[in-house]
Amino acid sequence: MSTTVFSNDLPHPAPRSSRPEIMAAEIIERLTYRIGKDVQVAKPHDWLTATILVVRDRIIDRWMESTRQAYRTGQKRVYYLSLEFLIGRLMRDAVSNLNLMSEIRDALTSLGVDINVIAGLEPDAALGNGGLGRLAACFMESMATVEVPAYGYGIRYIHGLFRQQMADGWQVELPETWLAHGNPWEFERRESSYEIGYGGSVETVGGYDDAPRYVWKPAERVIAMAYDTPVVGWRGKRVNTLRLWSAQPIDPILLDAFNAGDHIGALRESNKAEALTRVLYPADANPAGQELRLRQEYFFSSASLQDILRRHLQQYPDFTNLHDKVSIQLNDTHPAISIGELMRLLVDVHGMEFEEAWEITRHTFSYTNHTLLPEALESWPVPLFERLLPRHMQLVYAINAKILLEARKEKNFGDSQIRSISLIDESGDRRVRMGNLAFIGSHSVNGVSALHTELMKETVFADLHTLYPTRINNKTNGITPRRWLMQCNPGLTSLIREAIGDKFMDDTDALVELDKFADDKAFQEKFAAVKRANKVALSNLVGSRMGIRLDPSSMFDIQIKRIHEYKRQLLNIVEAVALYDQIRSHPELDWVPRVKLFAGKAAPSYHNAKLIIKLANDVARVINNDPAVRGLLKVVFVPNYNVTLAETMVPAADLSEQISTAGMEASGTGNMKFALNGALTIGTLDGANVEMQEHVGAENIVIFGMTAEEVSNLRAGEYNPREVIEGSRELSQALAAISSGVFSPDDRNRFTGLMDGIYNTDWFLVAADFDAYAKAQRDVDQIWTDTSSWYSKTIRNTARMGWFSSDRTIRQYATEIWRAI
Q: Would you name the residues annotated as active-site residues?
């Protein structure tokens, strides 16, 4: 057993200087000796890399000290397993958190370099899709800020999700090439590499008198190689690690095959390994896609657990205290196979008895559920699971037998309850339920908003909640105010500092002091000026990217999120069509000029989501080019939504669209970002909107539509959407226009199926909520026309959003689940 020793007696390099002239000299040194460029010929991307290397050196000092401190104190470590980490650009984030922004700017200015130009060249790390991945990134930054020793574990995707382009209004998926020129933030850790197996067989070893021991002999193996990125907390107090795994073949080339002329076949092992880490969320509508997805999830889970156990043995003699020193958080269901893998490692590799291993496993893991949608809870066909992970299939059956027997004997569960909690779904083709495995194998299961947590108890996990009534708890999501206020909205940050001082920068609860300025006319004017400047910036971006001119004096009404039917971009588009009809029919009325902006990506195999994007673009083409509208309404779908685009759109929003079908959005974090940046929310009582209403005040948020309970009752009854549509003149006219091809003259039947879904089933209740939504939008118009009232409400939104900091969320996790601080 190897032991890592950290001694204060060993020499450590002196901390790097923060003086601008010294950093400028270091930038030149990196440019010359690390990049091989003379100052005279260096390009902006060379200056960017050189600057990142200089900043990185200042991070390393604190990073190493953070690691030494964790070993010295024996403090419990948190390991955050997530298939996504949507970290965005890192340079501004790191420099700001180190409090070096002015010094770096001065250093670059002395060299004739504009920090804004080079910072704009940094690619977004393509490591996530939407809210799940962005939450993981916020949590990583907050864990460092509140000084929780933590590692984030994920996959180093070569292409990530995809780069979205539009071709005649249709989404086109292209590879995201963020790693094409390397990543100066990361460190390869070749010593942290592990074998990952697939397939093969399980053999039983042991004599007549010995307890049987099981040995898995995989048919395939790949190597997981670690790449580390430092994550800097606020004011640089702590630096944690994001460790991402890259897949490599054991034999990169089969020379015999190559020399025999089979040049493609010779690389098959290399290609199979690389496929594991090429793309986030491979389309799983076919068996090959499902298999690749399961392979990915096991790949990063196994590598992470092997790494965690190795690190534990560097400090402690065995694993009996693992749950006292290690807490592993599963970010949604994707890493649920980790529970089976830890059992395999403890029992098969380290010789622990099953019962002891199960107790340690259960007390080590905790699970965050992010959705009530059954398809997102994940389940795998038993034949696929058993073929790919035969030993884990045995362990799943063993765990299942233990739990079901306990439920029968101790809780007197009946057959229907047993079927509900079983790890094997027997209702059709037999499938392994990963959500149930995550629940059963964790000591804590948390929802991410108060409403979502209660719905978990009543719906998807009702019987598991009966079996384990104290296991479910709530941890409402949060966002890091560093990224989502201080960095993305420097104008508002400066205004707040001028008004209430700097305390809010360390404690967002202090934002409430802004309340006293909400009705102050002079402050409202300054607040409005900041908002207008942000809207001008977004208008310039849309103009340069899309050739569309926006009027910054219009209301900017923004919905940016993953495209999904439950998030109801379709409701927003249909209301835009209805508003378009009203503006043309009643030109004499005093309409509020409005720009409806959308952004988001649809999963490649999600037909209706991609059709919604096409509809948005078709509607935009017609409305934006109709002189009868007189510029009073524009619709814009901005392609390739990512963190960087959000950092421009969020501060520019006047109105935030949070209009999901009640009971279907677990939390949302875009709602928090918009409100913190002074936008008014229009939304349903869904997810964290419920708690936002409590904090900002019912008078400062526009709520419409059915509650989650009303949605459930309506679906359980005899809902007739056609009757509802026929009873709403505006809705029926809008749907008829879309169905008949008004917005798709080249293909009049293009949207017929999409509209039929509303007429016939309306599962997401677009029709049911339309009239309430349209009325709420006209209420928003009325508020907008009273400028003082509008800014009073939006200032109070900013003032009262301090509770939604991810620092608060992480402190709750750390004290109530992880016991890490």
A: 370, 561-562, 567, 669, 673
